[in-house]
Structure formats: structure tokens, C-alpha cells
Write a structure and sequence with these properties.
The complex is a heterodimer of chains A (114) and B (114). Chain A is mostly beta strands. Chain A has strands spanning 5-7, 10-13, 19-24, 31-37, 43-50, 53-57, 65-68, 75-79, 88-95, 104-105, 109-113. By secondary structure, chain B is an all-beta fold. Classes of the chains: A mainly beta (114), B mainly beta (114).
Chain lengths: 114, 114
């Protein structure tokens, strides 16, 4: 069964460093998402991406964040200068087409900023 | 804005006990409703969904009915198993045009003991 994959599973970084989280959505899916979950808190929407551009973003997704689909398979989330409060589990998700509402999630990347 | 409130955990049940996890929501329009499950060390998996009022979603013995009049989508299972131990998330997707971003509840951790 097709699945969303994410790498790395864990990442530790120093405050102020740049990190790139990688996701491979399900092949032929058209809509892509990033969510995050700070320990003990809700899963929060960050950004959605369709047709090579951001379609919606939350207040969390400020200028430190960017997303890219550099080729036909990868979908990346970059945090330019990490802060302690960026420590969280980051989930990637993908959705098939406009008629399909179900989002399929990857296993997540646990990011720890020291 | 949209919001989801679900029962705080953790919930501990004996095997074969009846499970209810309450979920209520606030949304404009006509959202679709979801239950996702996260097993230890894994990502979010769709458990079931309902796209309109009075729909019942079901999967693996779990059920939830979309109740518009009470704005609820409670998750139930008649007889839980140890393998059902996981964190359960209630979520809704925004209605109408847009990215169908998901709004999640805080999650309810279920532990089933033999």
C-alpha cells in the first residue's frame, strides 16, 4: 500500500541552525501539507501546497519557514534559523485530488533544537 | 474559527470493555469529520471518517456518527483489545473551497490492559 515517508526520523540541531525536513508524498497525490505537534499539545496545521505554490498557511508559518517541491517526488520544509520553540514532531501529509478529502500522514520527524 | 474538543486522557480500560471517546467541534459550514489513530512510534493513520450529517464512519470495530445537532463525533468500540492501545485524534477539515486543512483535537491516549 502506498505511504508517505519522511526523513530523518529524528534530528537534533543547535539554535540558529537551518534544518530541512524531507517528505515523499504518495505518488500521484496533488496536495501536500505540513503539520507539527509540540510535545503534549495539539497537532497544528502549518502549510498546504498545491500546483507548486502555497495555497494556505497558518500564523505559525512565518518567514523562517519555507516549503519546496524540488523535483517530482520530494516535498521539503525548511526552517531557516531554528528556535528552541521549534522543537516538535513534524508531520507531512498528502491528499489525492480535489474530490478526495482524506489526508495520508507520514511517520513524522522529531526535531529537537538545543 | 474551527476547533475540536475531545476528551482528555489518559483512558485505561480492561480488555473487552466498552470504549467511548467524546469529541465535539465548532465549525462554519459543513466540515468532514475524522478520527485518526497514532500507534506508538508511528504516524497518524486514518481510522474512520464521515462527510455529512448522520453519516456513520466505521472501521476495525470502531464507529462514530456525525451529529450536527450536537456538533459531536464520538468514537465508540464495543470491546477493546490490547492492540487498540494508541492515541486517538478527532479532526475536522474545513468546508468549502480551500486546502482542506485539518483541525485536530488534543488527542486521547488509550491504554488497554489484559
Amino acid at each position: 500500500e502506498p505511504e508517505v515517508t519522511q526523513t530523518p526520523s529524528h534530528q537534533v540541531t543547535q539554535m540558529g541552525q537551518e534544518v530541512i525536513l524531507r517528505c515523499v508524498p504518495i505518488s500521484n497525490h496533488l496536495y501536500f501539507y505540513w503539520y507539527r505537534q509540540i510535545l503534549g499539545q495539539k497537532v497544528e496545521f502549518l502549510v498546504s501546497f498545491y500546483n507548486n505554490e502555497i495555497s494556505e498557511k497558518s500564523e505559525i508559518f512565518d518567514d523562517q519557514f519555507s516549503v519546496e517541491r524540488p523535483d517530482g517526488s520530494n516535498f521539503t520544509l525548511k526552517i531557516r534559523s531554528t528556535k528552541l520553540e521549534d522543537s516538535a514532531m513534524y508531520f507531512c501529509a498528502s491528499r489525492g485530488d480535489r474530490r478526495q478529502e482524506t489526508q495520508y500522514f507520514g511517520p513524522g520527524t522529531r526535531l529537537l533544537v538545543l | 474559527g474551527n476547533s475540536v474538543t475531545q476528551m482528555e486522557g489518559p483512558v485505561t480500560l480492561s480488555e473487552e470493555a466498552f470504549l467511548t471517546i467524546n469529541c465535539t467541534y465548532t465549525a462554519t459550514g459543513y466540515p468532514s469529520l475524522f478520527w485518526y489513530v497514532q500507534y506508538p512510534g508511528e504516524g497518524l493513520q486514518l481510522l474512520l471518517k464521515a462527510t455529512k450529517a448522520d453519516d456513520k464512519g466505521s472501521n476495525k470495530g470502531f464507529e462514530a456518527t456525525y451529529r450536527k445537532e450536537t456538533t459531536s463525533f464520538h468514537l465508540e468500540k464495543g470491546s477493546v483489545q490490547v492492540s487498540d492501545s494508541a492515541v486517538y485524534f478527532c479532526a475536522l477539515s474545513g468546508s468549502g473551497a480551500g486546502s482542506y486543512q485539518l483541525t485536530f483535537g488534543k488527542g486521547t491516549k488509550l491504554s488497554v490492559i489484559p
